[in-house]
Amino acid sequence: MSLRRCSRPFAGALLLAGAVALSGPAAADWFSGTPQPVEKRVPPCDDTAVQAKLVHSIASADPRYYGVTVKELKHIEQSALVENKDSPLARRYCTARLQLDPLPANLPAGKAPPKNVLFGGEPAPKLPHERFAYYMVEEQAGFVGISWNVEVCISGLDRWRVYDGQCETVRPPPTR
Q: Among 1, 102, 112, 121, which residue's CB has the most CB atoms within a 10 Å radius?
């Protein structure tokens, strides 16, 4: 079977999925030019789906990056809601206190991490059991830009400076 024949069903399924995704009320508002309220486009910080994506993002990160698991989210607050400023996409900036399990996420409880494996030969850092998490819920940042997504940074654990070391890229922009 040729590659062209194999790719036709996949392309058809992708087009069908796109048509289904664009056939809801969001598409009708987008095509008519009537903007939806931000509450419909970007869920609040304490929404259970947002919390689930936040925990999943931390759990699925490379163990050398965070090396922790989340036990509990507390004191969830919205820092800012930015809409129609530098970008037409709405962004909701949030903070939360995370109760962390300081063991690496890929090891069972009670086992110490082997040296030279998770932290490049350095001993695992001593972690306080609570850290701040800064996260941003951004519209049209999901798969193929169809839904919202969450970007999260744990204060003091951005070893590779993915979020600018002090979690700057997931914090609200400074006011001008």
A: 102
